[in-house]
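[job 4417] fold queue: 2 targets
>>> target A
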Amino acid sequence: MTTATEIQAALESMRDERQAAQLMRFFKTGKGDYGEGDRFLGLKCPQTRIVVREARRDVPFSELEHLLYSPWHEVRLAGFLLLVEEMRAALPGRREAPTARAERRAEVAAFYLRHARQANNWDLVDLTCPKIIGEWLLWPSADGSMPDRSILDKLAEDTSLWKQRISIVTTWRLIKERQFNDTLRLAAKFLGHSHDLIHKAVGWMLREVGKKDIDTLTDFLESHYRDMPRTTLRYAIEKMDERTRLYWLRR
């Protein structure tokens, strides 16, 4: 078993104060910013992944919990990435029944949801929720029923900005399977949201829908473009040709 103390020590051994100062500015940790008070060791994501790769599937939930409640951003990231590895290990193999290891998937998803508030910056959300909650929603439970996707609406209605972002970014995994309904439902729900991080996330997911099915994106834009924050619209149409982008921007 690898302990949280050992993982944190490995991360702290690579500490870089100059890089930490840059990351604190990049992730908006100043007073009144969305990441206010977050602390950084100054590691780049590949460095954190090295530690995760060495410890994966050898860290129990009790130790992961310690990581998720660390004051250090990179330590929390390591905890969430280790949880991604747990979900990956719980997915059915090609020759297995879809219900194989369903109980373990449910455990991993439930653990993530209990501690979701600790994914308290956009990278912690974006690097983990599609690969944990998104994967869980795609596979049947032990009794053969599918997980209830109303969990996405519950997250969207939470007061936590990060849970709200989890709800929409989780659908990235569903989009890859050409399942668009959850994305479109949540996108419509968030049209009146006040925060730029939600505007960007919604536009990003709509853009991903458009990569799979441009007609579905176009239909959504026709119905909602007048109510969309400008940032959301710009993100959503980013991959369209210039003439089409200008068409939407000038309407």
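>>> target B
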Amino acid sequence: MGRNVLGLGMGLSLLTAAQLLSSFGIQWYTVAHLGAGPDTDALYAGTTLLQLLSVVVMDPLSFVLVPLLSALTGVERRRLAWPLFLGVGALAALVTLVLYSAAPSLVGVMVPGFSDATRQLTVELTRIQLTALIGVACFTLLSAFYQARDRFIWTAGALLLCSLLGWWVLVMALSSGGVRLAAWVQVFVLSGPALLLLKALGAWVPGSFPGAVTCLREVGVRMRPLVLSAAFVRTGFVADRFLTSFLGAGSLVMLELTWRVLAAVVRIFNQGFVTPVVPTLAKLAQARAWEEFVAVCRARLVGVAGLSALAFVGLSTVAIFGQSIGLWSGGQPGQGGITSQEMATLRMTFFACAGGLLCGGVNHLLVNAFYAEGETGIPARVEAVASLGGLALKAFGFLAGGLLGIAVAISLQYALAGLLLATAFYRRMLPRLRECSSGPVGRCVSGEPSNRPR
């Protein structure tokens, strides 16, 4: 079983790495072709509402659904599939219509430092990219059904396929379509994978709506603290864009481009080393096999931390020596593309943001360990505290150092969250391990439930 999990993790890591490399290629090609300026600032700012809903609603939905569906039988999952799919899709469509109408007012609040022309373009690009919300919602649900059956490869493969097709369209038509084409390509990349996962729904099962209503209630109860936490913890990019809108043109896109590279690496590790183990952790927690639960978490923490450190060394090498060996070249001011000065700013921003790379994977694993046992309140409170501290740090960093000050604040926020999560996890697991050691030998290793109250 260990070899199967390791092989699955390696396969997922490779697929996710290819998908994220393709996704980053789309972003880099767009910025390199159009330059770091008002148009690309508007493009990245135009993703804000979609990203906000993704991190506040869709990510918590996935965190809750995977352990919940993993504990059900195959028959029970088939009964829930279509009602949940229709409900989630209809709700996403309604939210899309509401935000489409409210986009001008919301954009004015999110990026008040933009010029009038850039703000108008941001509204247009926001409306285009909001159309991807339905596809993102459906993909979140469908991928949860796949993962609950320990089937991870095709979900990552669907993302890769759509990303490659989107990149091809961008390369062929960006010169004529400009920034608006780049926005539509993003819609395709985010929505297309849902179409490739429709097989997960299976056949319609009559009389399945009552069970779906009960499931949705349970999902709502478990999601509530996660949504509140995400509103604090995972919406820092809104503050980043608000602050960078007051800096020079191109500042927003340079911070976003740098951060997306780091976030992409973290996501590769999460997909390869965290996602495959969540169903296992959920089953161990259900059986109260705490010694094995902690052992699995410890092994994954060591692996993710080590890989994050290696990734930092590798990216640092590329950042320092890449230009000298011809991996990229700066453009000329006024001629589009990334200038040498902008490349220098990107390198400095990378080092300032590196705390997100070093701590991101570890934090994600600790949060999922809590979720796997059905505990959502503790990580929600811990991350909320770290996020509030991060907002204060970003405000100070903006005043003291502009773009680089904001980047340093991001690193400090991730480090603070990691410290608090590790402390909370240790305190929660310690009495359970003591309970195991004081009972019959092997009781908490074999998975035999304890007779003591939980």
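[job 4417] complete. Note on B: The chain has a mean pLDDT of 82.
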